Structure formats: C-alpha cells, structure tokens
C-alpha cells in the first residue's frame, strides 16, 4: 500500500514538472537562445532568468519533498499506530500533499511568468 502511495506522489510530481517545463521553462529557454545573439558581451545576464527559474522549481520541489517526508516521519514515529492504522495515516498524509500539488503548480507558474518578463 505504501508503495502505491509513493508511486502516486511520484507520478503527480513528475506530471507537474513536465507541465512546468513544457509551458514555462522551454519558452524561457527559447527566448534566452533567441536573445543570446545580442548578449555576447553580457552572457551572464542572458542566462540569469533561466537559472533563476530552474532554481525556483528546484527549491519549491525540495520544500514539498521535505514537508511530505516530515509528515510521513511523524506518522511513522507514533508507536501506537500499527498495521492498517499506520497505512491509513500515511495514505491521508500523501493524499493531503498530492492535493497541494495543484496549488504549488499555480504558485510556480505565477513566479515563472514574473521571471520570464
């Protein structure tokens, strides 16, 4: 059961990352390459927004992963919870965090749009 929850979270995160890459990061990369012909003197500036965008996505996903890990560690550390009850708590923890992915995605898209301008 826990493996299924882990798979579900991984699929949700992978889907989010692919969506962000397709809808935001690739557009920023294209713009960066298009502008790079005029950026020979200041290449750091040309690549700054893309690096900032990638750092933002990495940071937000790390925070999400840390939060999920803390939740599952907290649930797993309770001595009284065994068997089905533990599975139920882990499932709720995962469900709650997977439901947050939509909010996280919206937040990252807004931030990426601001960086890309």
Count of domain modules: 1
The tally of strands reads 0
N-to-C SSE series? HHH
* Cα-atom radius of gyration: 19 Å
Report on this structure.
There is one protein chain. The chain is mainly alpha-helical. The chain has helices at 2-35, 43-77, 83-116. The N and C termini lie far apart (44 Å). Pfam families: DUF842.
Write the topology of this structure.
Blueprint lengths: L1 H34 L7 H35 L5 H34 L1
Helix pairs in contact: 1-2, 1-3, 2-3
Short description:
The protein has 117 residues and is mostly helical.
Which key features would you list for this structure?
117 residues; single chain; mainly alpha; Protein FAM136A; DUF842_euk; 0% strand
């Amino acid at each position: 059961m826990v493996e299924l929850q882990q798979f579900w979270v991984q699929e949700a995160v992978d889907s989010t990352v692919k969506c962000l890459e397709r809808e935001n990061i690739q557009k920023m990369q294209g713009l960066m390459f298009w502008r790079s012909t005029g950026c020979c003197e200041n290449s750091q500036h040309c690549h700054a927004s893309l690096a900032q965008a990638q750092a933002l996505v990495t940071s937000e996903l790390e925070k999400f992963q840390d939060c999920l890990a803390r939740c599952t560690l907290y649930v797993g550390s309770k001595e009284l919870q065994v068997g089905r009850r533990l599975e139920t708590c882990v499932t709720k923890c995962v469900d709650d965090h997977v439901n947050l992915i939509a909010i996280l995605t919206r937040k990252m898209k807004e931030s990426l749009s601001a960086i890309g301008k």
